[in-house]
Specification:
This protein has 262 residues and is of the alpha+beta class. β9, α6 and β10 form a beta-alpha-beta unit.
């Protein structure tokens, strides 16, 4: 019984990720290919590997599967990641490696229930409803993921177009965190049947370690309204999520032609 419950929860995480990717694929500024209905090749046009995905949820893959994906991303002219999902056999990763797609990192699938944190009360949230807010969300998110607090880049046009395109999808909700009228963080949630997926969760580099992330996670919990919260974290982000009540379920190896995927 316990093993069955764990498998159901594991599937919920993967299902929400697929829901997010297929929603993004519907945005007109993106390019996608769905061979046979199950796999999804997705290019957002952004030159960051983690923004472009080969989502192929099969137990095994063929040389033809890999060649089709490589051809797609060569045509799109973007770097990409290929996650090896739970249930893949030992030959799956080997087929990617043989094609020059080496394991370059991993995401940690995590979940939490009923989060309630002691967070600052002076942080307000605004759900993105207009195109101007979508543009602000894109720039706030992109800057929040910057490694430098001195030079914060604007989001590329492709990411701005993506945020605008997501406005029409009711399963997606983009949020901006404010303190004294200044945008200091952002996140996006994707609603599933029994879960809420959290994506693009980040705070401004100069506003970290002052409770912004705690307040943002409380807001995610409010939106979840009792549903389980799921996400995929980088290893560097996992300590924060663990500290607020998330548990790691499994790791998702990421293969790519790039040296670094984050």
């Amino acid at each position: 019984m316990m093993k069955t419950m764990i498998k159901i929860i594991d599937k919920i995480v993967t299902d929400n990720l697929e829901c997010m990717l297929r929603g993004v694929a519907q945005v007109s500024s993106c390019r996608s290919s769905s061979a046979g209905g199950a796999s999804l090749l997705l290019s957002t046009g952004t030159c960051e590997p983690s923004e472009n995905w080969a989502f192929v949820p099969f137990r095994s893959i063929s040389k033809n599967d890999v060649e089709n994906a490589l051809s797609f991303f060569d045509m799109a002219n973007v770097p990409f990641i290929w996650p090896v999902l739970l249930g893949a056999d030992k030959h799956y990763g080997r087929a990617l490696t043989d094609a020059g797609l080496f394991m370059r990192g991993e995401l940690l699938a995590m979940r939490a229930d009923n989060i309630s944190l002691d967070a600052p009360l002076d942080i307000a949230f605004r759900s993105v409803k207009t195109e101007s807010d979508a543009v602000l969300w894109a720039h706030t998110t992109w800057r929040a993921f910057s490694d430098s607090s001195d030079s914060l880049p604007d989001a590329p046009d492709s990411f701005v177009a993506l945020s605008r395109g997501l406005l029409t999808n009711d399963s997606f909700e983009m949020n901006i965190a404010y303190r004294e009228g200044e945008p200091i963080g952002a996140f996006m949630v994707v609603s599933g049947k029994s879960e809420l997926g959290v994506y693009y969760f980040a705070t401004h580099p100069k506003k970290r370690r002052c409770g912004v992330g705690l307040a943002m996670m409380n807001e995610c919990s409010r939106i979840a309204a009792g549903r389980v919260i799921v996400l995929q974290s980088t290893p560097s982000g996992a300590p924060f999520y663990t500290s607020v009540g998330f548990k790691t379920l499994f790791a998702i190896p990421l293969h790519s032609r790039e040296e670094s995927v984050f």
